[in-house]
Amino acid sequence: MELTAKDIRLRFDELKQERSTIDGIYDLIELYVRPHTGKFFNVEASEHSVQWDGRQLFDSTGIKGARKLASALRGSITPALSKWLDLTWEDEVLQDNHEAKEWLSEASKKVYQALLESDFPLQISKAFLDTTSFGMCYMMLEEVGEETGDLDFTTFPVKNCYFEPDFHGDPMNIYVEYQLKPSECVDKFGDKCPEKARDDYDNGRTTTHKVIFCIFKRENGQPYPAAPEQRAYGWKYVYYEDKSEITSGGYFEQPCMIGKWAEHSDSKYAKSPAFDALPDIKSINEWVKMSFTAAELTLMPPLMVKEMGLFSDVDMQAAGITYVNDVEKSIKPLNAGVDYKVYELKREELKMAIEEAFYVDILQLKDSPQMTATETNARMDIMLKDMGDTFGFIKKYLLDPLVQRAFNILFRAGQLGDMPPIVAERNTGKDMLEIEYLGPLAQAQKQGEAVSVERFFQAVVGIASAEMEVTGQQTALDKLDIDAMVDQFADVYNIDLGLVLSDDEVDELRERRQAEREERLSLENAQMEAETFNTTTQALQTVN
């Protein structure tokens, strides 16, 4: 069933009401962790409603913690200066076929390059910051035009987004609220711009207009090359005020990915480190606020005044004059008894708790100006243990569908080259790709396997050496598949396929080498026979 404009308006209102409780938490996170992202209970209908001051913010530990963690995620999962993804086949037959692997290897390079040349690097940074703060992010991938292969990314503000999950918890219908100025409406919708927005634009008014953008799953959606109204996912812009449809279209895949930090067992919404740190963040803000009062008491202490000891009011201005009966006895400062050591200890305790919630204690450099390789590996191992589940959520809900959609867009645009025949033959109509991540965090996971294999190999070599001393043989090495181990190391360390020979090429090389060895042995044997013959002939001649 196709969602109508009235359905979209009704469902949007229900979802907004449903999220009202968690919006209270989001509002606190916006205040203490992500200021200037917009209050969740307010609608910024004009520039006058935007709050640029810090309001009740007195400490920036939470703000810095979220930014450092988001930056660490960006650098360890999708680093800007190195290739962070690779594509392999789920089908073992294709994965063992060198032609299919070569084609997919080149395709993965083109997908990565397309991401790099788009606004993905900027938008993924926003997405990770939303994830560390609010526990979720909404990232949209669209194609500029039809079958152009040009990628365009948008990270929607969390406060404007709502979704309905399917049975498996994946986003099925997504709703994004826009507050558009008349000029924005005219630029976005052109001839289809709502009449009220067009009238406001023509008359120079700046009143905002609420528009709902909805992406919904069609029950009988058709695969490529279906028309927009028949594709698997439809989209509509709905003018909120009169529940009218502005424009509509369709996508072949879900274009909006919802990343999560950690799932909540009883809610479709996710938690973030900011949720855990929020009590300490609120406490440190109150503590710093109290310190300002204490500092004020120290700098401008209250005064004790002897009754009838003053001839005038107390003048606290610079060079002010106050008339008293007795300079030593009529007026004295009142010691408030402020102990700054207690303040500093408590503030440092709260700061450490907040930074621990945002993994800053793992991420930041210590006393040295740069980390050694050993320290880097140790910290990466700690991150892997503490953030392994988070990496899994980010892969499943954000990066996997994003990379798959980018691949599909480029393939439909003809930018990945001709598919090898064996790939078309093995196509089962399902997703055939397996996405591997090559960033430091993913590499830390894979290198753990390589370390185990390396230790196993060294142990077997040790056994074989001992065996050689005792029996004169090294049969223990017969248990090892050296080719398989080399392939695994090449995979773990992300070695380009062009640097590693295929199984067929290795067989050909070994056959050629064996033939050369046999030819060399044949020549050596012939030479030895000739020498033997000559020696025997000379001996017989000597006897005769």
Give a summary of the structure in a few sentences.
This protein has 544 residues and is of the alpha+beta class. The chain has helices at 5-18, 20-32, 61-77, 92-96, 98-117, 120-134, 182-189, 195-202, 273-299, 340-357, 360-363, 373-412, 421-426, 440-471, 482-492, 503-543; strands spanning 85-89, 136-143, 151-156, 161-165, 171-180, 209-217, 233-239, 244-251, 256-260, 262-264, 267-271, 303-305, 331-333, 433-437.
β-strand percent reads: 15-25%
| Count of strand segments | 14
The best one-word shape is flat
The N- to C-terminal Cα distance equals 112 Å
Low-confidence stretches: none
Q: What is the CA-based Rg, rounded?
A: 35 Å
Helicity range = 40-55%
Strand order of the largest sheet: 4-5-6-7-8
Pattern of helices and strands = HHHEHHHEEEEHHEEEEEEHEEHHHHEHHH
Mean pLDDT: 83
Q: Major β-sheet, in short?
A: 5 strands, antiparallel
Count of DSSP H/I helices: 16
Global structural class: alpha+beta
Protein model, in words:
- By secondary structure, the chain is an alpha+beta fold.
- The chain has 16 helices and 14 strands.
- The strands form 5 sheets. A 5-stranded antiparallel sheet has the order 4-5-6-7-8. A 3-stranded antiparallel sheet has the order 3-2-9. A two-stranded antiparallel ribbon has the order 1-14.
- A hairpin with a 7-residue loop joins strand 2 and strand 3.
- Helix 3 crosses helix 6 and helix 7 packs across helix 8.
- The protein is flat, with a radius of gyration of 35 Å.
- The relative contact order is 0.12.
- The mean pLDDT is 83.
